[in-house]
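Case study.
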Amino acid sequence: MQGSLKPGGYGLLVLPACALLLVFFAYPVFWLLLRSISEPHWGFANFQVLYERSIYLKVLLNTVVISLLVTLCCAVIGYPLAYTMAHGGPRVRRLLTFVVLVPFWTSILVRTFAWMVILQRQGLINDLLLWLGLTERPLALVYNRTGVLIGMTQILLPFMIFPLYSVMLRIDRSCSWAAATLGAPPLRNFLRIYLPLSLPGLMTGGTLVFIVSLGYFITPALLGGQRDIMIAQLIEQQISNFGNWGLAGALSLVLLAGTALCLALVRRFVGGQAPWGRR
Amino acid sequence: MTGGEELSAAGRGAVWWHRLRALICVLVGLYLVAPLVIVLIISFSSAPFLSFPPPGLSLQWYDNLFGNPVWLRSLITSIEILVPTSILATLLGTAAAYGLARSRLPAAAAIQGFLMAPVVVPVIITAAGIFGFFRHIGLNGTLPGLILAHTVLTVPYVVATVGAALSVVDARLEDAARTLGASPLVCFRRITLPLILPAVLSGLLFAMVTSFDELIVSLFISTPRVRPVTVQMWSNIRGDVDPTIAAIATLLFGFSLLALLADHLARRRSAGGAR
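After joint prediction, the assembly is written out as follows.
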């Protein structure tokens, strides 16, 4: 280490940022995680509670199920859009990039609020459904899992679209054309040639969406019901309502471990760069 | 997009697929943007509740917003946080990115990973940790506390954007300047900085937007006396909602949109040189 840190060397430039993060990020997180085994007494009692009480296990399961569903929805909806972005004309590309970037830059709170307005009992969607005669009574679209899925999918869609788009841009279309010339039907051509080539983007995007979903707080808190709360809400409740730092620490450790595991998996399969980098 | 696109063998199927894809794109586009537009329209509603379409237009909710000292104070608090946060994050992030790019530190990858960690670790964990830490050192409910916490959350974006820009700057330009006798500082200011300026500005803008929109950490560490606008919005959303919330949401949305456009302009001006 010392050898490359010449006096006045460039390496010193990383120190201020590292120091800030060490004091105001790494230490607090470590302190929180340590609570899981130090409070109320040293030991693994908190993890035992997590394991034995079925409500906590239910929250963990619920978190994974919602995250998987959101990831699936993002993949299904995001794929055609990313495809069009990558292979459409320059104007289409510019328009779609703008359409994806605008919500990406907009506050999650604002977007969640928008969905509260639209999905409520007398909201736009219900009005529309009633007017079309598709339903006789307003549907419960919010304060339940449906609301959480609709909101989270919209909010996380850009995380799926950008990695997909950047992979699709680099796909050599001549492979598909060659297959088509040789008589491959379009669907088979897509499944055998294009889809496998775009798989790294799908994996990166999917993992990104899944990881971010796991720790989601604002959207499930506002659009979800009492029955399907997610792990981040449980952590907040344990601290704000019960001051139970031990359990909050244990839940945080579980969440962090899950996140790290997913990251390690995607690194293993896709390799290369960290998926969260912006360009 | 050159040649051989319409292979007649694919024929009608391709046309159908094309149309279906166009339709899907329009629907997904609406799904992404329409909610924001609807909130924007409702904020100008003359009705006292969140109905759409509004029966008439009025500015009463903006009146309400700017006439209400609580909302006004929270807006000012947010700005008091975001200005120092974005400056601090840009300075620290740019310095770190430059250091990482030019120093050949043996642990560069690990340091880079560490600097990106606040984006990867779920914010709820960071928030709870900082809340617990601040309780001990008395920084909860203070402006410096909020600024420090927001800086932690925004530094990674600056490191990532500036780092990406630095990776395409030709280091030989700097070497040339140094050989000709420029000090490291002059070299950075006259050669490197102009080249990476769009990325630095982009990082600054994203830090501003992130700080302005941040809710979770602020929710934990703010108090009614020092309360940014997102926390104020959060506590009102859960009570009875009137279009004042739509007005504040539109304000936040407008701020994001402006920042996005500014970012676009910065990138565009640099596009000629960089690519």
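Observations recorded in class. Chain A has a mean pLDDT of 88. The domain at 43-270 of chain A is CATH 1.10.3720.10 (MetI-like fold). We will return to this complex in the next lecture.
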